[in-house]
Design goal:
Blueprint: E1 8-9, E2 12-13, H1 33-42, E3 46-50, H2 57-67, E4 72-76, H3 84-99, H4 102-109, H5 117-124, E5 132-137, H6 145-157, E6 162-168, H7 176-181, E7 185-189, H8 190-193, H9 197-207, H10 214-224, H11 228-245, H12 250-258, H13 267-270
Parallel strand pairs: 3-6, 3-7, 4-5, 5-6
Antiparallel strand pairs: 1-2
Helix pairs in contact: 1-2, 3-4, 5-6, 9-10, 11-12
Length: 303
Amino acid sequence: MSHETGRETARGPVLQITKLHRPVLRDGTVRRARLTRTLVAARPSLTLVVAPPGFGKTSLLADWADIDPRPFAWVAIDRQDNDPTVLWTYIGAALGLATEGEEAADRLGALAREPDPATAIFAQLKTPAAGVVLVLDDYHLIEADECHETVMRMVELAPPGMELAISSRTDPPLPIARLRATERLAEFRAPDLQFTPEETAVLVNTSLDLGLGADSVSTLHERTDGWPAGLYLAYLSMRAIDALVTSTDEALRRRIAAARSFRFISAGSLIGSRPAVGRRRSSRARSRAGSRYSRPHSAPPSA
């Protein structure tokens, strides 16, 4: 398979191989143990991670994949995947790569042209004894009803030990209520993904090394409601202020330094751009050098 995309060959769509690589956690990422422990233990048919931008959905899934003993098949969704043949070529290739390797990736990906690709792929998929997790990241970019129908068929036909995980900014048009009623669904939403006060302290004082006092951390957490992107924006504002404090204008330096507390800087103004949510309710690399499936040097997770 080529690294190109957007055209067809006799064997099917040409894949962008980087879409099959799960992101690498950046240094300083706040590990979400309270969530990943649940993800490892739950083992439902479908896991939904649904929240607006900036809540660390992709980071959470990559954190989960980093500690779960099961192999993870990963597809980073984009708008070209609204063609069912393209989508299922990626799904087949991802499952083959995660379970057996490149030959299986080619073989399973080629089954996307079958009338019922889910049945065709599962008939040949060799699920490891430990199970396998298939991640469809940024699923909100899928709009085609035919794609949604085939994904739901995948949930219904999935062999024992296979779990589907979807991250999305909105609920996918799947029978969520039915899956919830039959206890086949695990859900993580914005209130679950908001940082706890302890996670906020780790981010600002360990990952970002701001050295804030407990009162300032508490104020920042309250004003952002633990919104991860808001906390990072506050950090960028702090850096901008630090740069101004180095000014040679002594009067300006004194005035900015006096206002440096997070009680008075831009953290409060961030609330206007924060997605509206309720308050808190509570790698195994399979590539090798020179491989067409080789992992990129860095693919930091998006929020």
